Structure formats: C-alpha cells, structure tokens
Amino acid sequence: MQEGILIRGQGGIYTVRQDSGEEFTLRAKKKFRRQHVSPLVGDRILFTPGQGEDEHGWIEEILPRITSFIRPPVANVTLLVIVVAPQPEPDFLLIDRLLIAVQTAGIRALILLNKKDLNPDLEEELKNQYRLSGAEVVAVSAKTGEGVLELPAFLQNETVCFCGQSGVGKSTLINALLDIQTETGEISRKIARGKNTTRHVELFFLKSLRLMDTPGFSLLSLTDEKEDPVLLKTRYPEFMPYEGKCRFDPCYHDREPGCSVRQAVLEQEISPARHERYCLLLQEQRENWRKRYD
Ligand SMILES: Nc1nc2c(ncn2[C@@H]2O[C@H](COP(=O)(O)OP(=O)(O)O)[C@@H](O)[C@H]2O)c(=O)[nH]1
Ligand SMILES: [Mg+2]
Ligand SMILES: [Zn+2]
C-alpha cells in the first residue's frame, strides 16, 4: 500500500498526491460508507494504485485526522484563512462563527481582506474589531498585487484552507500565490481552470505552500456541533483576561450585573461590535442547546 494526500474528490472519484508529486485516481472502498465516513480533501490516506493506465485504484485507509470540517468538507487544516472584501459586503457574524470553530478546533486563523483597492478603510475597521480575537488581519489586493508578495510568509508550512463568501476573491488570490511561486516555464494548474466559479474543494501544492480553494457555501459553518452555551465565551480570547472577575460564577458575560467583560466593553477594551454579536450567538446557542434532543 502507498500513502498520499487527497487533493480532489468529485462524484466518488478521488485524486491522491504522493510526496513525490505523483497523482493517482481512486475510489473509496465500500466499508467507508458502512462506517459513515467520507474521505475528505486534505486526508492522509493509504491506497492501492490501479493496475492499468485507465484503471482507478482504491482508498484503503484514512489515517487519523487532526481536524475535520463539514462545510467546507476538508481535513487536517492547520490555518483557516477567512477571506473578506468590501464587495460582497463582509458578514461579520460569519467571520465570528468561523473564528469560534477555529478556536474549538484549536487551529489558527488569519483574516485576509482582499480587494483593498476598492475600500482601504475596511482594513482599519477589521483591525479594530479583531485586534484581540487571536486572528491577525492582513490586507491585500489580488488585482493590483499589493501585499501579495508578503502573503507566503504567513502561509508557509501550514495546510491552509481559504474560505469565505463567494466572490471575495479566494480563487484569484490562490492563483496569484501560485503564480509568484511558479518558476517560468512550469505549467500551473490554474490555466486549466480558467475563471470559472469554484464548485469543488481542491488542494494545491506548490513548494512549501499547501492551499485549499473552496466554493462559497450558502451555509458556511465549519461544524454542526451543538455545544453547551457556557463554553461559547471560552472561544473569545479577548474575554480571557476577565475570566473569574465577574460577580456571578459562571457568568455568561451577557446581561449579568457586575460583569467584568461588559465593563471592558464599556471602556472599549473589548470591541463592542464583537461583544454584541457574541450575545446574539449566545442566544442562538442557548436555543440550539434546548432543542438538542429534538
Ligand atoms: N477590484 C478587485 N477585484 C478582485 C480582486 N480580487 C478578485 N477580484 C474579482 O472578484 C471576482 C470574484 O473572484 P473569485 O476569485 O472568483 O472569488 P471567489 O468566489 O472567492 O473564488 C472576480 O471578478 C475577480 O476578478 C481585487 O483584489 N480587487
Ligand atoms: Mg472561487
Ligand atoms: Zn461576566
């Protein structure tokens, strides 16, 4: 058996890539369906290659995952790049949801503002709101190339998943990154892909970059997990310094009197917009938790 990483999977046909760069076409053995597991892009697998030229091989084993997400369906991501842009207008609640999932999974996140050419002010707004969120904010323009050369330094040696609303420029950014890493004469896979809308998750390798492009999911949420609402506050690094300093224990940092987090919000130590959306998400999580056995 051989080992490799799944880089594509559509209609039950998977592509695996070995460390040498060689690729094979595979199908998943029936046992995976019985076990209710689907191979995911990013999965490290054991496989047997097909015999002839046209014959596909088989996925035999999926090696243990570090992380796995549902939408986008990807495994072993170590860095989630949340791409936002002035156009389409950023959905801050979506950014927060993704950051919560990132904290839960124990991986890193980067908020990447693209299309800086369209509205340079958004960078300041994002930096204000997410200063203490654990995710760095970086602004670039894939169109003018501003900031793109500095990007690989943030992505090196990680398995990076680009996610975010459709139209923010994920594919354009990945192509720009592959371009600057591609030596002249080397044929980049992007050429075959043209300017089409991304329909499937795909993992691209180039030198020390491993980048996953994902389609815009109408309901982008990394997991479906219902969690005890009391845990939500632990997904906000900016609340940590105040933990244990509220009048009530446990304190949800919502409407309780004598709440040190709310005090910090009043003093603008914590972003009021972030806290306001936290209260919304807390409400949502309380409802989901109540309905968890329905
Ligand atoms: N003005 C501007 N447009 C951009 C930039 N990056 C991408 N676009 C455009 O945004 C549109 C959506 O890009 P695409 O990469 O398909 O977005 P995706 O759905 O996130 O993959 C395309 O028309 C791109 O040409 C940018 O930096 N500035
Ligand atoms: Mg795309
Ligand atoms: Zn509190």
Q: What does this protein structure show overall?
A:
This protein is an alpha/beta fold and 294 residues long. The chain has three domains: 2-62, OB fold (Dihydrolipoamide Acetyltransferase, E2P) (Beta Barrel); 79-213, Rossmann fold, CATH 3.40.50.300; 229-290, Probable gtpase engc, domain 3 (Ribonucleotide Reductase Protein R1, domain 1, Orthogonal Bundle), CATH 1.10.40. It is built from eight helices and eleven strands. The chain has a six-stranded mixed β-sheet with strand order 8-7-6-9-11-10, sandwiched between helices. Helix 2 links the parallel strand 6 and strand 7 (108-113). Helix 2 crosses helix 8 (272-290). The longest helix has 19 residues, at 272-290. The chain is globular. 33% of the residues are buried. The model is unreliable at 183-188 and 190-194 (pLDDT under 50). The structure holds guanosine-5'-diphosphate, magnesium ion and zinc ion. Guanosine-5'-diphosphate binds at residues 114-115, 117-118, 141-143, 166-172, 198, 216.
